[in-house]
């Protein structure tokens, strides 16, 4: 019997459970209510359930299930015949060290803010599935990213609940002496200490550095409080701990990475620590640079110059003073490595430039973003024509097992070998689809949309309760109970992502009369669900949220346009599986890739997007809709106007009529044809298994 308790503990302490539907169901079954209350966190769940109860609960059926998933996890962890074993044995022996300022692995581990983190989380999961020896490096943010509330005016308010290590599946890392492993990092004149934690993600390990420990003064303890919190000083301190501390940690663990992968420029200081190690071994600076670049690969994610991290000469001088003293690196040499214009002493230190100069390869995250990046950084490569600038691309993907809703997973198991088959190749996906009737597919759509709509109802009841503004979306009926405003019979659009202004969340409201007519068409109605957080310093983004909430209160939109607070991985999973159409209208070409649209395919949703990021590669005319043809106008007003008109035209003339065109069994045959095309063309291509294989063969293996 003790074994059962140990099994539960074991399952809860490896995030593998988060992409295994059966294990997730098992935890939920222990207490569906608690499961919701603890934000789907099994460690916390088990803290609330006594061993007596656990033992009593294990009747035959439950015990069998527990044994089965426990064995499944053991088999997974022990498997030797992996893709990497066959195709990259060198990367089974020596690890890939993957540095990222954020990791979005599961909603219960709040160390991410948005797409970059979700990508890192999906990357590490696929690396585990494929059998790479893979180590992630990040920071342990005690307060994580904020929890979003809206006040009565629709203005975003931020709250920072603390996450306690004892409620997370993380362990302190200890050194050979059995004591806590503490990594010292020099910042300014101070030696700052970081505790190392470990989080197990399937076979992969994620290490988290944490400066929130007693020897540090308060201003250094805070380095690891919040994801992207604070000012420039905080930013550089975080990046020093991540990059330099991360390399020191790997060294202390005795790891010899085959390759260091920088996911965005935040971690580029890792190259400086690698340089220091090379110089300490007696190499010249030139030799050291060669050696370091031969070990590093870099992925850039930012298609606009202003988005890249830059630090002033003074700030660099202040922060690296003591560190450089014993490193053998001259300050001016360091500055030259990160300057766009090395001859200008006032040139800022740019993390991306450092990363580009000290990597053996660099890439953007979609075909279009590769092109944009080559143009943006051509000036660093004198005399090199733009098409030969050494920045390639690997298009982002998503970890399909994590994003498949429980019912979707079951659905595909019923008609095929499961999502493994559907995501393997277009041919295999088509084969699976051949055994699915239109009736089955339509049933899947209804079921997922019903789940979403029920979820939204519970969620906004809570949300409005604390806002004391029930009137926002809900009508009270004569019995004074509220009605679910949404209906699964209605075409449902989702729009959810960070509220960075370039994503233009309010674009669809540009012509309120026209939108009002579209939404309230009695025979072909429409409903829209929004969600998303603005960065705490981004007042323009918060203003977008406020506007949308204000529009949602207009009589013509009431109950038909909903804003869900506190977008996170959990809310995302509900939305992407339930909506019919996923809207994405960024200002081209600012969406480096985007991944949220990739999440809907497996569930039978369709993309409606500006041809930006991954979408121009994926769109074939049949598997969704593009807004415009990628025209870029100088005048942002004109751009918004043209894009909005195009958006309304497609909505009115194509999307809505296709959705409501039904056969004699009330099935939208043409719509489902598009859905089939989207599943077959998107699911097998835009996933992180394909992406990580591509990173491995193109960049990780020399
Ligand atoms: C997928 C995802 C993102 C990325 O969305 P984009 O539309 O690609 O920017 C951001 N946040 C969460 C919570 C996600 O799940």
UniProtKB/TrEMBL annotation:
Catalytic activity: [(1->4)-alpha-D-glucosyl](n) + phosphate = [(1->4)-alpha-D-glucosyl](n-1) + alpha-D-glucose 1-phosphate
Primary gene name: glgP
Matches recorded under PANTHER family: GLYCOGEN PHOSPHORYLASE
Protein name: Alpha-glucan family phosphorylase
Species lineage: Bacteria, Pseudomonadati, Chlorobiota, Chlorobiia, Chlorobiales
Alphabetical GO biological process terms: carbohydrate metabolic process
The organism's place on the tree of life at top rank: Bacteria
Gene3D superfamilies: Glycogen Phosphorylase B
Residues annotated with N6-(pyridoxal phosphate)lysine modification: 599
Family annotation (NCBIfam families): more_P_ylases
Pfam families, per the entry: DUF3417 (PF11897), Phosphorylase (PF00343)
């Amino acid at each position: 019997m003790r074994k059962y308790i140990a099994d539960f503990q074991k399952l809860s302490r490896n995030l593998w459970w988060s992409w295994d539907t059966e294990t997730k169901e098992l935890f939920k079954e222990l207490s569906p209510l608690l499961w919701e209350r603890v934000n789907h966190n099994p460690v916390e769940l088990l803290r609330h359930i006594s061993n007596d109860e656990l033992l009593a609960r294990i009747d035959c059926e439950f015990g069998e299930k527990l044994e089965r998933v426990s064995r499944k996890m053991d088999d997974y962890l022990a498997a030797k015949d992996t893709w990497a074993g066959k195709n990259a044995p060198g990367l089974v022996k020596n690890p890939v060290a993957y540095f990222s300022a954020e990791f979005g692995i599961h909603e219960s581990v709040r160390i991410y803010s948005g797409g970059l983190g979700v990508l890192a989380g999906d990357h590490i999961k696929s690396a585990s599935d494929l059998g790479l020896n893979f180590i992630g490096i990040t920071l342990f943010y005690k307060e994580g990213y904020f929890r979003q509330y809206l006040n009565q005016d629709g203005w975003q308010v931020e709250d920072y609940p603390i996450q306690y290590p004892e409620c997370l599946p993380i362990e302190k890392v200890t050194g050979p002496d059995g004591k806590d492993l503490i990594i010292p990092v020099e910042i300014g004149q101070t030696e700052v200490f970081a505790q190392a934690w470990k989080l197990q993600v399937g076979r992969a390990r994620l290490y988290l550095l944490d400066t929130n420990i007693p020897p540090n003064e308060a201003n250094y303890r805070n380095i690891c409080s919040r994801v992207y919190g604070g000012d420039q000083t905080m930013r550089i301190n975080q990046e020093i701990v991540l990059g330099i501390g991360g390399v020191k940690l790997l060294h202390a663990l005795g790891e010899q990475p085959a390759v260091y992968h920088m996911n965005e420029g935040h971690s580029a200081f890792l190259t400086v620590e690698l340089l220091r190690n090379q110089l300490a071994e007696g190499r010249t600076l030139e030799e050291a640079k060669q050696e370091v670049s031969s070990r590093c690969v870099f992925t850039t994610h930012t298609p606009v110059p202003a988005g890249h991290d830059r630090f002033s000469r003074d700030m660099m001088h202040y922060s690296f003073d003591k560190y450089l003293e014993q490193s053998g690196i001259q300050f001016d040499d360091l500055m030259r490595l990160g300057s766009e214009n090395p001859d200008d002493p006032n040139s800022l230190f740019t993390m991306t430039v450092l990363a580009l100069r000290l990597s053996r390869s660099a890439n953007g995250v979609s075909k279009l973003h590769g092109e944009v990046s080559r143009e943006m950084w051509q000036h660093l490569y004198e005399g090199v024509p733009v098409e030969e600038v050494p920045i390639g691309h690997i298009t982002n993907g998503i970890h399909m097992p994590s994003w498949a809703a429980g019912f979707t997973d079951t659905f595909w198991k019923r008609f095929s070998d499961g999502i493994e088959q559907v995501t393997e190749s277009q041919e295999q996906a088509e084969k699976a689809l051949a055994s699915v009737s239109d009736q089955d597919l339509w049933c899947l759509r209804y079921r997922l949309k019903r789940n979403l709509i029920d979820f939204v109802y519970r969620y906004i009841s809570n949300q409005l309760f604390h806002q004391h503004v029930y009137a926002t979306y809900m009508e009270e009926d004569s019995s004074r109970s509220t009605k679910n405003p949404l209906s699964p019979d209605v075409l449902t659009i989702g729009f959810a992502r960070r509220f960075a202004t370039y994503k233009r969340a309010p674009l669809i409201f540009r012509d309120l009369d026209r939108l009002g007519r579209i939404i309230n068409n009695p025979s072909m109605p429409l409903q829209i669900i929004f969600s998303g957080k603005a960065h705490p310093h981004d007042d323009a983004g918060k203003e977008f949220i406020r506007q949308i909430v204000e529009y949602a209160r207009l009589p013509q939109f009431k109950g038909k346009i909903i804003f869900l607070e506190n977008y996170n991985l959990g809310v995302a999973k509900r939305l992407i599986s339930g909506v019919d159409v996923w809207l994405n209208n960024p200002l081209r070409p600012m969406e480096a890739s985007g991944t949220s649209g990739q999440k809907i395919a497996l569930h039978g949703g369709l993309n409606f997007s500006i041809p930006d990021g991954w979408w121009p590669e994926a769109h074939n005319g049949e598997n969704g809709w593009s807004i415009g043809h990628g025209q870029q106008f100088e005048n942002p007003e004109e751009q918004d106007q043209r894009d909005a008109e195009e958006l309304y035209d497609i909505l009115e003339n194509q999307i809505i009529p296709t959705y409501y065109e039904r056969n004699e069994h009330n099935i939208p045959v043409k719509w489902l044809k598009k859905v089939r095309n989207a599943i077959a063309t998107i699911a097998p291509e835009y996933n992180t298994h394909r992406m990580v294989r591509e990173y491995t063969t193109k960049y990780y293996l020399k």
